[in-house]
Amino acid sequence: MTVPTIPTQQRAAVRQGEGESATTAIKNIDVEKPGPGQILVKINWTGVCGSDKSLLHDDWKGFGVSMLPQSHGIAGHEGAGVVVAVGEGMQKRWKIGDRAGIKWIASTCGECEFCLNGNDEVHCEKQINSGFSAPGTFQEYCLVDGRYTSKIPDGVTDEEAGPIMCGGVTAYTACKRSAVKPGQWLVLPGAGGGLGHLAIQYARAMGMRVIAIDGGDEKRDLCQKLGAEAYIDFLKFKAPADLKDEIMKITKHGAHGVIVTAANKTVYEWGPMYLRPGGTMVVVGLPKDPAILAGAPPLVIALRRLNIVGNITGSLKDVEEALDFTARGIVHPILSKGKLEDLDSWVEKLKTVQGRLIGHFQDRPLNDHASGWSSLWDSNESGLWDRGRPSPALVDLIEEEENAIFQPTKSNGERKKALVPGCGRGYDVVMLALHGFDAYGLEISATGVAAARKYAATELRKPQKYNFGAGWTGPVKPGSVTFVEGDFFKNWERQVSTDGEVKFDLLYDYTFLCALHPQMRPQWVARMCQLVRPDGVLVCLEFPMYKDLTQPGPPWGLNGVHWDILARGGDGLKNIGKETEVDQVDELPGRFRRLLYRKPSRSYEAGRGQDMLSVYAPK
């Protein structure tokens, strides 16, 4: 084989700054020559792992884990490429042109108890880790220990091999650690995610029966396509206990194993409850909060003889086995591809929902926010805000309040009109129609409107239980449903009224105000005044109440904002204080008066138990 030409310098994505604000910059650095026991690999593809994001942004600093100086600020540990230079002592194992995979564990001592026992070198105390204690794979050439670098077999592309170096082998070894046998049940919360979609495939290949848990129809379709026998949409359940009941219906006594891939407190608290006696929960997802999460009360663990085990990547042999599933055409990572200079945008996609939304809008001009939301619809990212069901708080208000203003018909029998701006997939619009209102949904995106119409077509024929609450005394003849594509602040009414004017008896706002930049709050009030009938009401599910007003959005914090802009006549930006008794008088200069303010007995989990329900009438 022709000896490849190796440049003296290469491009690398080098960390700049620290904490959440850290970024990477493309810099030219030297290409090192391999010493004894080393090989030089030209990186063709590298995966981006959640752990890369955590290291770049110091998420684990509370555990004393941060990128060490030896990494030179270069993260990455899912690399695949070709050997271009071989150091002394490696000629028998490696040849130029061989394909090589670089893992989280870049090197071990080979001499300690863990290295010598044959299957546990992941605990070698002298191990070196890619992107942590050694330069990682976010560079064009990577110098690695030839003894511990994995050979990529024929039948596995570099694109697929990269993610298998960490995500794939972690999912595979988690399946092994679960001790679930062929024909037994394995529950996978977050099954449609990066680790989850791989775990489905490995589990099915190993003969396990998979119950996938995730949110939404798209994740359902994906999980079922990959081989999940059952799918549970957590968005359609009111509480984690309901998920447990559903698992028991499927399995009778509970699952034999649960693999927690998400760094989610609720899943860790409930994971053991999904198990049958003697079952095993595998801990994989790594929250940045050092709080103790993974477990049930000792009494439950003891009486049911539950097993809770940890899992981190895998051994050299495990990687070989994980790659073999792909070589045989059984397991395939689902990939999105980009360039090295786009690394920051890919890291952004790994953030939490709120972090990803903030990143999407942080550099976008205010007059371009509408197209920003539309682009999220078009890129299939509506899951960032999609709750998967109508508001339980609104359902209860409509069904339980005896005030005539919440009734769907007027005294003359005419149906009332209800509007939901920023209606998403139309859950609340359909629910209001099922309760007798002529319901309208406004959405900025044509893609969103199409999704809402598709949902309504199915839901109106066969409504799901989540559309109704304990106070429902129906049935009633459903009202009409109309979805409109348009900008809330422009004259979209011409699409539904010949004279371009339409007033609504009920307007409902949940995530619309919190999605608007704070500077738009006065315009939001003015527009609501234009759209509400003199005898109509504005219903607000105030969210997020837990978020500090100074923090970036969306969603922007709204604690006290509704009262300030609607009743006090403030701008929602300055001097937002707590209400006082003086504030309760009707002489306040705001354009609305508040009729009701309470904590709903039911609301979305996203509100963290702090959502408030308010009802305002125009003065």
TrEMBL record:
Boundaries of every Enoyl reductase (ER) domain copy: 19-331
Family of this protein: Belongs to the zinc-containing alcohol dehydrogenase family.
One BP annotation, GO: methylation
Gene Ontology CC terms, in alphabetical order: cytoplasm
GO molecular function: alcohol dehydrogenase (NAD+) activity; metal ion binding; S-adenosylmethionine-dependent methyltransferase activity
Biased composition (Polar residues): 1-11
Entry-linked CDD domains: AdoMet_MTases (cd02440), CAD3 (cd08297)
Keyword terms, alphabetized: Metal-binding, Methyltransferase, NAD, Oxidoreductase, S-adenosyl-L-methionine, Transferase, Zinc
PANTHER family named in the record: ALCOHOL DEHYDROGENASE 1-RELATED, ENOYL REDUCTASE (ER) DOMAIN-CONTAINING PROTEIN
InterPro entries for this protein: ADH-like_C, ADH-like_N, ER, GroES-like_sf, NAD(P)-bd_dom_sf, SAM-dependent_MTases_sf, TPMT
CC cofactor: Zn(2+)
Listed name of the protein: Enoyl reductase (ER) domain-containing protein
